[in-house]
Amino acid sequence: MIVARPRLPVLVFLSVAAAVSACSTTAPSPPVPVASGAPAPVAGLDWHLTTDDTEAKLAYGLAESDELKLGLSCERGSGRLEVSAMRPTGARDIHLESGGETERFPARSEPSQLHEGVFLTAQTRTTEPVFQRFRKVGWLADWQGDRRETYAPHPASAGDIERFFAFCG
Q: pLDDT, tens digit, for every residue of 43-73?
């Protein structure tokens, strides 16, 4: 007489073995560096903040020189900005970009006393999307025709961007 053995223990064993193999671990792989997409700071150039009781200026350029790439200024709590930049003669606007936001600001032009070209000045507000994005991502790009220059802070000056906008309101 042949006695049938229950197959339940074999099925349980196979189920447990399958579950254990599914949960086996492998050594974690090292994290893959991900590019942030933000431009890198440029040696010698940086954002420079100056403030007094009533006015703040945030300028991108070479410290303690006339080498100004872009300037922002405001009166405390006003929410208004004055944007200034050097351009070739004939330029009429300042075209800025930050993190996907872009804006052109019609500007007043006057001959530069220091360089060839003109000095442009535009009036705007801190609430413009390009400036809100600049405040968040920490870099700004300046378009001059087909040429794009990016202005990213060095780590020591990165906080000055937020301090400037907090001052301006």
A: 999 999 999 999 999 999 998 888 889 999 9
Cβ-based neighbour number of residue 157 at 10 Å: 19
Identify the three-state secondary structure at position 139: coil
For the chain, give every domain's residue range.
45-168
Q: Judge: domain 45-168, CATH 2.60.40.
A: yes
pLDDT above 90 (res 6): no
Q: Which amino acid is residue 65, in one-letter code?
A: S
pLDDT attached to residue 16: 35
Half-sphere exposure of 146 (CA within 13 A, CB side): 0
Coil vs helix vs strand at 94: strand
